[in-house]
Amino acid sequence: MNLTGKFAFFLLCVVFLSGCATTSTVEKRKQERYDVYSKLSPEFKALVDQGKIKVGMPMDVVYLAWGKPSQVIQGESSEGQLTTWLYYGTTFEEYRYWAYRPSYSHYYYPSPTLERDYVPRNYVRAEVVFENGVVKSWRSMPRAPY
């Protein structure tokens, strides 16, 4: 991928990511589920406004703070029904390879150049475990070390 192609790819990513950031905000979700937000305690309202969650929050409140999960997993424990919400993040893994480009000096011969491409990789960035509809535990994970 040449420099112009990389720049075009970068611009496309910026446009795409900026579009995603504006369509899924806390404010939009609060308007969408105003009836849920308006009945929250002051503590939960403050946490939602900051995009934070805590143990004991119901599913609707976690949705307000963090949005729709990327994946939902159902299970069961001795205490009751378990639901796990996974939130994915994306990182870019650098992929290096040698390419041979013609070199036009005194004699024609291909010269190796180190090229780089970037491949998107998903990873689990956060996990919320609900027991009987309220947060039992949650954790955020570091970006994948590609």
Topology:
Layout: H1 3-23, H2 26-32, H3 34-38, H4 42-49, H5 59-66, E1 71-77, E2 80-104, E3 108-131, E4 134-140
Antiparallel strand pairs: 1-2, 2-3, 3-4
Helix pairs in contact: 4-5
What's this entry about, in short?
The protein is an alpha+beta fold and 146 residues long. The protein has one domain (3-140).
Identify the notable features of this structure and list them briefly.
alpha+beta; elongated; 5 helices; 43% strand; 146 residues
Order of helical and strand elements:
HHHHHEEEE
Would you report the number of β strands?
4
Number of domains: 1
Q: Major sheet: size, sense and barrel closure?
A: 4 strands, antiparallel
Radius of gyration: 23 Å
Terminal-residue CA separation = 21 Å
Low-confidence spans: 19-23
Describe this structure in words.
The protein is of the alpha+beta class and 146 residues long. The chain has one domain. It is built from five helices and four strands, in the order αααααββββ. It has a four-stranded antiparallel beta sheet, with no helix packed on it. The protein starts with a helix and ends in a 6-residue tail after the last strand.
